[in-house]
Amino acid sequence: MAKRVAIIGAGVSGLASIKCCLEEGLEPTCFERSDDIGGLWQFTEHVEEGRASLYKSVVTNSSKEMSCYSDFPFPEDYPNFVPHDQFLEYLKMYANKFNLLKCIQFKTPISCMIQGKSFKLL
Ligand SMILES: Cc1cc2nc3c(=O)[nH]c(=O)nc-3n(C[C@H](O)[C@H](O)[C@H](O)COP(=O)(O)OP(=O)(O)OC[C@H]3O[C@@H](n4cnc5c(N)ncnc54)[C@H](O)[C@@H]3O)c2cc1C
User: Fold this and answer.
1) Mind telling me which Gene3D superfamilies this protein's record contains (predicted)?
2) DSSP 8-class letter at 100
3) Which residues form ligand 1's pocket by a CB distance below 6 Å?
4) What phi and psi values does residue 69 have, to the nearest 5 degrees?
5) What is the pTM of this model?
């Protein structure tokens, strides 16, 4: 039976973690507190506690060649430095291409218990 793995957060790191687990024959479940993937790259007009936020005009400060997943380049027609909405679109393409959404449980914030006390994980 495949080993089960818990992954917290469906941002850039969580998505890559899910993919790696699947490639290794593991059974990942990713717990995401929001209702969508992308983490930081999900733009919102309002600031949310415990969450880094983007301003509307954010463009990556690393080039698309340096920022992409090694096995999934950005589309040719994307600019060299990618606006945040296209970055999110790219992450959605990645998740769809590798069928990652089936492993994500949305609206599921994870907290941890230490010596009987519950702590929120940011
Ligand atoms: C303004 C800004 C600009 C940036 N620009 C660049 C750039 O140009 N190039 C670059 O490479 N990097 C840039 N970064 C760095 C950026 O942090 C990374 O690109 C990337 O988004 C980090 O991904 P992550 O998955 O580690 O974290 P995040 O994107 O923060 O994702 C974390 C996810 O985990 C979820 N989560 C958190 N806690 C819990 C919990 N307790 N339970 C359940 N779910 C939880 C969140 O909802 C979120 O979806 C920038 C950062 C900022 C703030």
Assistant:
1) FAD/NAD(P)-binding domain (3.50.50.60)
2) -
3) 8-14, 31-34, 39-41, 52, 54, 58, 60-62, 67, 109-110, 121-122
4) -65, 145
5) 0.94
